[in-house]
Each structure stands twice: as C-alpha cells, then as structure tokens.
Write a structure and sequence with these properties.
The protein has 89 residues and is of the alpha+beta class. The protein has 1 helix and 4 strands, in the order E-E-E-E-H. The protein has one domain. The protein has a two-stranded antiparallel ribbon with strand order 1-2. Strands 3-4 form a two-stranded antiparallel ribbon. It binds zinc ion.
Length: 89
C-alpha cells in the first residue's frame, strides 16, 4: 500500500510514514525522511529563535540601562541649570 507524502508529493509504502493518531488513516502526512528534515529544521529554527530572544533581551536591558542613565543625566542637568538660574537671580 502506497501513500502520498504531502510534503515531497512522492508515493511511499506506508511503512515510510510515522503513526499519527490525529490523522484519518492513523499515519502522518509526511514521509519519514521529510519529517526528519522538518524536525531538524524546526530544531534549528527554535535554536535561532532562542538566540534571537536572548539577544533581544540583552538589547532591551541595554536600552533600558541607557535610558536610565540618560534620564539620570537629564535630572542632574535640570538640577544644575535650576541651581544656576537661582544663583544668577
Ligand atoms: Zn516526503
């Protein structure tokens, strides 16, 4: 018995498909070799996402720190200019 792989559109014997309880015939939609490739791809994708996530977090923290520093500088600047203004009056 052959089954069409939904990914590579080739026919394979059903033994080339993993079991999938949710599908109508109890078999996966993709052949094992496609599934393997997809799993590897998704793992790589997830790894990349993880790296991007960490990088974004680091960036967010950095931006936050910079902002805090700028804000602090602004406060000091405002304080000093107020001081100067009150002194010059
Ligand atoms: Zn396939």
């Amino acid at each position: 018995m052959l089954k069409l792989c939904s990914r590579c559109n080739k026919k394979f014997p059903v033994t080339m498909f993993n079991k999938n309880k949710r599908s109508a015939d109890g078999l996966g939609y993709q052949c094992k070799s496609c599934k393997k490739g997809m799993d590897r791809k998704s793992r790589l994708l997830h790894r990349d996402q993880r790296i991007t996530y960490d990088r974004n977090r680091w960036h967010a923290r950095r931006e936050h720190n910079l902002l805090q520093r700028k804000l602090h500088a602004k406060i000091i600047e405002g304080y000093t200019s107020n001081l100067w203004q009150s002194l010059s009056k």
